[in-house]
Amino acid sequence: xxxxxxxxxxxxxxxxxxxxxxxxxxxxxxxxxxxxxxxxxxxxxxxxxxxxxxxxxxxxxxxxxxxxxxxxxxxxxxxxxxxxxxxxxxxxxxxxxxxxxxxxxxxxxxxxxxxxxxxxx
Length: 121
Fold this sequence. Notes:
mainly beta
């Protein structure tokens, strides 16, 4: 019997609600929200998010709270165990990533340093 797989990313209720609201306003059909990381910023890496009009066969597909999240295959080890939240304060609102693989962040909060997760044998 196969063991259940750990979700690469999980969403809080607030994040799921916000993603659903954003996707409902899309003028074209959306297959899901693609999440990844890219090189950039003062700390070395930045989180990326974009609409996906199709699921790439290489994507890691995560279904959580009625939302389809597509993880770029190059980002899986960087995002393993991450919780995605949406927070609103008096000064700003936005998605927040609680990533156990994140080792530091820059002062502006836009850039992070992430060490890839290691898979236990």
